[in-house]
Amino acid sequence: MRVRITPGGHLEGRVRVPGDKSIAHRWLILAATARGTSVLVEVPASLDVRSTAAALGVVSPKARPALHAWSSNDAAAAKGHGSTWNVRVGEAASTPLEVEGEGRSGLVEPSHDLDCGNSGTSTRLLAGLVAASPFRTVLTGDDSLRSRPMERVAAPLRAMGAAVETTDGHAPLVIDGGGLHGIDHRTPVPTAQVKSAVLLAGLDADGITTVTEPAATRDHTERAIRALGGPVEVEGSTVRVERFQQEGFAGTVPGDPSSAAFLVAAAALTGSELTIDGVGLNPSRIHYLEVMERFGIHTEVRVDHDEVGEPVGELWVAPCDGIRSTRIEEWELPLVIDEVPVLALLASHAHGESWFLGASELRVKESDRLAGVADGIVALGGHAAAEGDDLVVAGGGLDGGRGDALGDHRMAMAFAVAGLAARRPIEIDGMEAADVSFPGFVPTLVGLGASIEVASG
Q: Comparing 2-18+255-454 with 21-251, is the CATH topology the same?
């Protein structure tokens, strides 16, 4: 789908964003392997989360009916067949999802390969789960997923005692699990997915499992385990867990702060005031607000309650009268890794040059985001370049033009938001990719006052 964004307009109102898929992946795994009933509300209807739910339904017989029904519900819309225009935020997500579990000992060998679609999170987290189970599991996915690095998760799981084979370092992964023991693992690069995979495996391993990262990453897994009563110790960027079997639990998935970042940027670029309700305010997920403050965008957060260890509340965006340039250092890249596309597009409208240092991890996301973001800014009439592992964005604004999301949801949304402040209209090919993480993204912007329509020709 190609859309046309007309610059200008003024956004206003209060809005909610879909549930956080990072949290949803983890809570679904914990629910399907709990003893008893778990009740989850606002599980996002994104394709990646559906991949995790569908795979869990294969290996967890008691959870299968609910997960299969939920993951296959409205499948046509979830695959982006016009759903950018006809799925409202929260639709198919507000009905409570009741998941029955029999504990990790109740998992069974899958009768076929587990298709993780385009979801690297599903693949890596499920690898950690099944590594402790005494049967064979094959994890695979689409062409994009099969190009992403998997040795980084395979290596620590092998060290714990599982037999793990990759295909030239990529998926499919063949895992013969069981008989795990704790290890002291140091990740060469900061990655919450690998950390979480090892921690999930450690919940069914003998001894203590320790993960130390070069820099702390998002901590949803350890927060959930602790909230459910599990033995977790956190010291800086080191996390330790021991064997633990959780019981059923209840929780409402907080709104995704990474999705909120696009609305914050949209408000800033149109000089608007905006309030986002019910959003997750986990400190490991909102470092981008500090970067935006350096851009000249002022926000305020107010935590009003907690969900399974996750702080939740309100995010307010003040009207902004211009974007300044800034420099994102290598140490903070892991803290804003999902927000780099929208931050880079904000930087394209800044007064001056901005740098994103040490961004090589962007090359192994849903697309090569490092090159894709730079090329997209140029295609839309701006100036940017990937220099080694760094991204430099010259600023000065976008003239307008036509960009391609390259099947990447975050680039699709970042390009669309940036178009609100371009000098001429822009067109974006592949806007349906936004449904991967933000079903209803376009109608949300339109409902707030943006001018976006399907492009013809």
A: yes
